[in-house]
Design brief:
Structural class of chain A: alpha/beta
CATH class of chain A: Alpha Beta
Structural class of chain B: alpha+beta
CATH class of chain B: Alpha Beta
Shape of chain A: globular
Mean pLDDT of chain A: 95
Number of strands of chain B: 6
Largest sheet of chain A: 7 strands, mixed
Strand content of chain B: 25-35%
Strand content of chain A: 35-45%
Mean pLDDT of chain B: 94
CATH architecture of chain A: 3-Layer(aba) Sandwich
Number of helices of chain B: 2
Low-confidence stretches of chain B: none
CATH superfamily of chain B: Beta-grasp domain
Number of domains of chain B: 1
Helix content of chain B: 10-25%
Order of helices and strands of chain B: EEHHEEEE
Oligomer: heterodimer
Shape of chain B: globular
Radius of gyration of chain A: 14 Å
CATH topology of chain B: Ubiquitin-like (UB roll)
Strand order of the largest sheet of chain A: 1-3-2-5-6-7-8
CATH architecture of chain B: Roll
Distance between the termini of chain A: 21 Å
Helix content of chain A: 10-25%
CATH topology of chain A: Cytidine Deaminase, domain 2
Number of helices of chain A: 3
Distance between the termini of chain B: 44 Å
Low-confidence stretches of chain A: none
Radius of gyration of chain B: 13 Å
Chain lengths: 142, 92
């Protein structure tokens, strides 16, 4: 049976922010949160916010967001009347497919947007969500 | 009662509630009270051995319980406790 995730509609400004962040951070991984709302059967992403990658060591293959930045993100969503819909990060020189490291700590319900970046710039963007079997399933980006 | 802040991805298991309140003397007790009240949340917080999952962090106020006494950290009714999903990953 196919999964039942809502399709994503990512506003152009939010998409450009995520792509731009991926290119600026290259060859390191970037990360951030995105916000919006679920409306009329669509998960609408209206805003992306860059967050510092605090992973110690080689950031070309890893990212990490601090607990305090996560708390701030939840508070920001509450204050602005938005929903924290998910996390984006980049895969420099790798396709936008979740790795075992992505899967190991993934939470249900969140959308995980991955930006694949090559030397010339962003190659493609895909989004994923955890299934009830703890496997990533792709979400449709409208 | 102590206040527990539920992160957005777990609210689907708490009927959409972002805040849960219960009387508990430590963090473990507060999380167990949540799990008892909302069964769906339990498997996302605790592993089969009953320990907090490695990708779940808990803060009392602005302090990570890993820098306090872990799940045994004492709390009182004035405390605000936050469940924080670890956000990390990488390409390979």
């Amino acid at each position: 049976m196919s999964h039942q995730f809502l399709p994503l509609e990512i506003h152009t400004s939010a998409m450009n922010d995520m792509k731009g962040h991926g290119e600026e951070a290259f060859p390191n991984e970037c990360c951030g949160f995105f916000y919006g709302e679920e409306k009329n059967g669509v998960r609408v992403v209206s805003f992306a916010k860059r967050i510092e990658n605090v992973k110690e060591g080689d950031q070309r293959r890893r990212f990490e967001i601090s607990g305090k930045d996560y708390m701030k993100a939840e508070r920001f969503a509450t204050k602005e009347g938005l929903t924290l819909l998910g996390i984006y990060h980049s895969h420099p020189l790798h396709p936008a497919i979740p790795s075992e490291h992505d899967l190991a700590v993934a939470m249900p319900w969140f959308s995980y947007v991955i930006v694949s970046v090559e030397k010339e710039g962003v190659d493609h963007v895909r989004s994923w969500q955890l299934s009830t079997e703890r496997q990533f399933k792709e979400e449709i980006i409208k | 009662m102590a206040t527990l802040i539920i992160p957005t991805p777990l609210r689907k298991f708490t009927d959409g509630k972002s805040v849960f309140e219960a009387s508990a003397s430590d963090v473990r007790g507060l999380l167990k009270a949540l799990s008892t009240s909302h069964e769906g949340v339990q498997k996302h917080l605790f592993d089969e051995a009953g320990e907090l999952r490695s990708f779940i962090r808990v803060y009392v106020g602005d302090e990570d319980i890993n820098e306090l006494e872990g799940a045994d950290t004492k709390i009182d009714d004035r405390d605000e406790v936050s469940i924080i999903p670890a956000i990390a990953g990488g390409s390979k």
